[in-house]
Amino acid sequence: MQPILxxxxxTKRYAQGPTALDAVDLTINQGEIFxxxxxxxxxxxxxxxxxCGLVRPSGxxxxxxxxxxxxxxxxxxxxxxxxxxxxxxxxFTKVSDAVSYSRGLFGLKRDPARIESILxxxxxxxxxxxxxxxxxxxxxxxxLIAKAxxxxxxxxxxxxxxxxxxxxxxxxxxxxIGAMRAAGTTIVLTTHYIEEAEEMADRVGIIDKGKLLLxxxxxxxxxxxxxxxxxxxxxxxxxxxxxxxxxxxxxxxEDSKTLTxxxxxxxxxxxxxxxxxxxxxxxxxxxxTALDTHQSSLEDIFVDLVENKS
Length: 310
What we know:
This protein is α/β, with parallel strands linked by helices.
């Protein structure tokens, strides 16, 4: 894939404060959804702010669309959209006026048809004449997305886009985000709902204390670091794991009533291994009354990485 954003050695140090970004290298490919995950204070918002011109880096380079942001900031920024965590707009402004104003900030002509299209896609058209202060929290969040889309960016940053939004609105937003990607928009998002990243993202980056711990294609990461645990409730207690099952990483519980398998790998590989273990148990004439399995999620991998690096 062609890179749309190239970050090299990006550093941000605050006077008498922490290092928010520590020599971060990151490449974002055109047309992908990239999820940047990390605990609070990890550096996610600082990184986004540096690309969007809200934070002045202490060092490093940022290139977007082949342009150096230090030299061609205005031209590059005109192709970047940002949905911030916090509302940063006049609450007394009408929805349609706020979105139209955002378009004008980038020197684009008025385009009522385009504004209508954006508001309709976000279920905001019937709220177009409402003041933003009268909207629900979820609708306000949609206004932020509409403002970010007003100038038709090629690269869109979503900083906690579904924070404080109910489940129904979250689903609507993710459908809209999928439609944006289908239309060719490259999306970089941060989220505390890691299951969203697991469902939507093509690649994942994990950042903590200003350092980028890893960047990897999501499926490859799940296959490399994923794990599965399968517990068999035995029909009769056993004194030891039979020699016929020695090839499997099995542990017998203290009460001798549960046999537990712990393996690694992606979902398909892990399920296949458990299926082979079930067949081995049957061949060895070992009866069990229940089987409980747990496949690791992206959140499990994230927590393990951050805890082990802290």
